[in-house]
Amino acid sequence: MPITQLEVAGYRSVRKLVLPVGPLTVIVGPNGSGKTNLYRALHLLSEAAEGRLARALAEEGGVPSVLWAGARERGPSLLTVAVSWDDLEYQLSLGAVPPQVDENGQPLSLFNLDPEVKEEHLWALEGRRRVVLLERKERTAFLRDAHGERVTYPLRLWAGESVLSQLAEPHRFPRLAEVQGSLRGWRFYHHFRTDPEAPQRSPRMGVRTPVLAHDGSDLAAALQTILEVGDAGGMESAVSDAFPGARLEIQAPRGRFGLLLHQPGLKRPLSARELSDGTLRYLCLLAALMSPRPPAFLALNEPETSLHPDLLEPLAALIVNASRDSQVWVTTHAEPLARALARRARVEPLRLTKEAGATRVVDSEMSED
Predict the structure, then answer these.
(1) Pairing mode, if any, of strands 115-126 and 5-11?
(2) Do residue 234 and residue 97 come from a single domain?
(3) Which end of the chain is more exposed for a tag (fewer CB within 10 A), N or C?
């Protein structure tokens, strides 16, 4: 299901933004402008569908750390993320757990960084009419089943997680299950280890790998999978475009997969342990973007990190090619990459700035007070 719109409110530097989403969405701006916050907001929806919302927020410092800290209207502080497809709209709103104490003033729970889902909605869009398919208020939810009947959710909801992760009898609620499956299928890449002890620098036991791990740890097996069941010619061209005259070789003695890069002028190939951080990262991006099993939605956060400027054009070509099979979301502070993507895909990047602590889109009315 292609996404058409993203709305984020009350999340870190994002007071409120409503953004269009196309086949390729490019978000560009300086450090601290809020690019990564939009990426993380999308990631939260996927984590919510998997039942990892509380853990994902804990890794960011807990709910108090992610809520908008600027001036706001009266009422509780809420983080809201909503996404629209052609005929569906899903919205998740959460806040901090209210402090609870016993008669002696002692806290009843130490889990005071957990989220509490306040509201959750799913609407079917029928022209200008919204049909409620899910309406949640804290731990109670009403759903519309496959027959169009409004029913009470049969289980007591866990306050810190989405209905999507607690869905029982998905055949009774097919549209909710559709959204759950869509969000779970999103793919995110924002950090590939390239330090000397990074797992992809050493041979590893491997299996056929159509989807690269989020940290790139199974890189050699993923590249070999592309060679065997994916676009082998396209991968060879992508390597040659980035490193003229170079050629990849994958070896797997005793099932342990490792990569070698043959380069002109060198008497022997270089192993992954010898490659520069930028070269290794580019190969990870190549494996992610050329997956033989492309996702419906793929997000990259600052993919230019540690890449040599000469690699930005080949990277742009990979991203644009991937956007033919997947919706691709790219956040970057590299203007050359943004320009290359704009030229190749004929898309206008969304440029972010920060005013009075709030993320805004430059020269746009997409930011709302």
Answers:
(1) unpaired
(2) no
(3) C
The angle subtended at Cα 347 by Cα 346 and Cα 350, nearest 5°, is 155
> Is there a domain that residue 244 lies in?
yes
pLDDT value at 74 more than 70: no
Q: d(Cα 214, Cα 327) in Å, to the nearest integer?
A: 18
Residues 26 and 41: their CA atoms lie apart, in Å, by 16
What burial class does residue 191 get, using C-beta atoms within 10 Å of its C-beta: 0-12 exposed, 13-18 middle, 19+ buried?
Answer: middle
Supply the range of the domain harboring residue 225.
194-288
The C-alpha angle 365, 369, 89, rounded to 5 degrees, equals: 75
Question: In angstroms, rounded to a whole number, what is the distance separating the alpha carbons of residues 223 and 250?
Answer: 8
- Smallest CA-to-CA distance from 174 within 128, 129, 133 is with 133
Q: What confidence tens digit (pLDDT) does each residue in 260-304 have?
A: 999 999 999 999 999 999 999 999 999 999 999 999 999 999 999
Question: Which of 114, 100, 125 shows the shortest CA–CA distance to 58?
Answer: 114
Indicate the pTM of the whole model: 0.92
Count of CB atoms within 10 A of residue 3's CB? Answer: 20
All residues at 6 or more sequence positions from 265 whose CB lies less than 8 Å from its CB, including other chains: none
> What is the token pair recorded at 160?
């810190």
Within-domain flag for 350: no
- The number of domains in the chain is 2
233 is written with which tokens? 């010619």
Contact 315, 303 (CB under 8 A): yes
How are strands ordered across the β-sheet holding 79-84? Answer: 14-20, 5-11, 79-84, 88-96, 115-126, 129-137, 140-144, 150-152
Q: Which helix (H) or strand (E) holds 15?
A: strand 14-20
Contact assessment for residue 50 and residue 165, using Cβ atoms and an 8 Å cutoff: yes
| 302 in any annotated domain | no
CA-based nearest residue to 159, from 116, 120, 121: 116
